[in-house]
Design brief:
The N and C termini lie far apart (41 Å). The longest helix has 35 residues. This protein is mainly alpha-helical and 225 residues long.
Length: 225
């Protein structure tokens, strides 16, 4: 049962994680570089609202706006990418955006905070005094040191791929692992609940391991012997 329900959850969760990283981190960097301006204010305010909005309410609002009113996306359900890639993308786009919105906001805030701390360091001021271009300073010197806390936080969000889709799958009527776990709890099916929790636990352990390994490649000063 778990194996049959796992592919939709992984598809939506990985898509949501990729969206949150490639959108949230650049937004945080931009807010830090433009600190005090309207871009910083807009990104910070948007991130705060995104963290406060409940996923289920946002999902219902998205269904009403993009599915029922505009007709751009399907209302509910799931299609495997092996059957129809374009249809599958349309089905998972809205659930992935809803699932990854809060993670995107958290990563943006963390990236902004880390980048602000780094760009105040002496070596950044020295690089600026030498006339090095701003893009090189930000992406080559500052980002590599500021990204470590962001990677740590992103690793903690990886388990949401498995365990964070319970509400999303219920709202969008997707027969994934999250919905299976919810049904097992209501039916008091202890074996299924235990199996799902073991899978979530393994995901957490693997996420922490990947984060620890990535430190060695992000910062050459960190070496494990």
């Amino acid at each position: 049962m778990i194996i049959n329900r796992l592919p939709p959850t992984l598809h939506i969760g990985i898509f949501a994680f990729i969206i949150s990283v490639i959108v949230g981190v650049p937004m945080g960097i931009m807010a830090a570089v433009k600190r005090g301006g309207w871009i910083d204010g807009f990104i910070t305010t948007t991130a705060n609202f995104a963290m406060a909005i409940p996923n289920f309410w946002l999902g219902i609002l998205g269904i009403y706006l993009f599915s029922l009113t505009l007709g751009w996306l399907p209302v509910q359900g799931y299609v495997s990418p092996t059957e129809d890639f374009w249809a599958s993308t349309k089905y998972v786009l809205m659930p992935s955006l809803v699932l990854g919105l809060s993670s995107m906001a958290i990563l943006a805030r963390q990236a902004r905070s880390s980048m602000l701390e780094i760009i105040r360091q002496d070596y950044i001021r020295t690089a600026r005094s030498k006339g090095i271009k701003q893009k090189i300073i930000i992406f080559k010197h500052a980002l590599r040191n500021a990204i470590i806390p962001v990677v740590t936080l992103a690793g903690l969000m990886l388990p949401n791929i498995v365990g964070g889709s319970v509400i999303i799958e219920q709202v969008f009527n997707i027969n994934g692992l999250g919905r299976l776990l919810l049904q097992a709890v209501f039916n008091q099916d202890i074996v299924v609940v235990q199996g799902c929790l073991i899978l979530i636990t393994v995901t957490v352990a693997l996420a922490n391991l990947l984060v620890d390994i990535s430190y060695n490649y992000i910062d050459p000063r960190i070496r494990y012997k």
